[in-house]
Specification:
Elements lengths: L4 E4 L6 H12 L5 E4 L5 H7 L10 E4 L2 E4 L1 H11 L10 H16 L2 H6 L15 H21 L10 H15 L6 H12 L1 H11 L13
Parallel strand pairs: 1-2
Antiparallel strand pairs: 1-3, 3-4
Helix pairs in contact: 1-3, 1-7, 4-7
């Protein structure tokens, strides 16, 4: 069998790594992790939102190299179609791709104001107005999907969109973002997934800290 690897960065700080890793896990892909130190120049730039491109995670499968989480999701959907990363109908797939793309390219204010940091918790954190607008848009997306498709995940069964929004769930937990009942239940569902619990446990064992992302607010 060909060796399959997934290059990822810090499990504590890297939202993109978490997305790619969850996609591979949802697809039931057998892979080895290659950890890129967050001290590496390129990885550090990505984590601090200073890099013009995101090259981690990077999946190597059957001699094919794929980076960028949306590209990884689409590739895995082709090679593992029974995994259900994308929903069944054309309309649902279009909706899934639209909100996944929105997360992939948008919400810059949220990313900069609420960086992913799984080891921290900031009770009563005050969110500035532009980041709050991003939060409200994300919650509107969740409500629309959960209402339209009936839950328990964004398109009924867990898949691509849930992997794309999972790091946002962790941000909401870290920065004590207030959620209503439906969104609280969805966030709890994401956090309780065995894959998320595995990732959180590994993140808690990391010893590398990035001062710019560990500042006291």
């Amino acid at each position: 069998m060909a060796c399959t690897t997934l290059s990822i960065s810090s499990k504590n700080y890297s939202s993109w790594s978490l997305r790619g890793w969850l996609l591979a896990k949802f697809a039931k892909l057998d892979f080895d992790e290659i950890l890129v130190s967050p001290d590496a120049a390129g990885a550090r730039q990505e984590l601090l939102l200073l890099s013009p491109s995101i090259l981690v995670p990077c999946l190597t499968h059957n001699g094919i190299k794929v980076w960028d989480t949306l590209a990884i999701a689409e590739y895995l959907n082709e090679v593992k179609p029974k995994a259900g990363l994308l929903p069944e109908t054309l309309a649902m797939r279009a909706h899934c791709r639209a909100i996944s793309g929105e997360m992939h390219s948008g919400f810059a204010n949220l990313r900069s104001a609420l960086p992913m940091n799984l080891k921290r918790h900031y009770p009563g954190y005050k969110v500035w107005a532009r980041a709050q607008a991003d939060i409200e848009r994300i919650l509107a997306i969740w409500h629309e999907c959960l209402t339209t498709y009936g839950g328990p995940f964004l398109f009924g069964k867990r898949g691509m969109a849930d992997a794309m929004y999972a790091p946002v769930v962790t941000r909401f937990m870290t920065y004590d973002v207030a959620l209503d009942g439906a969104c609280t239940a969805y966030a709890a569902r994401i956090m309780s997934m065995p894959e998320m619990q595995e990732w959180l446990a590994a993140a808690s064992r990391e010893h590398t800290d990035i001062d710019e992302l560990d500042r006291e607010f």
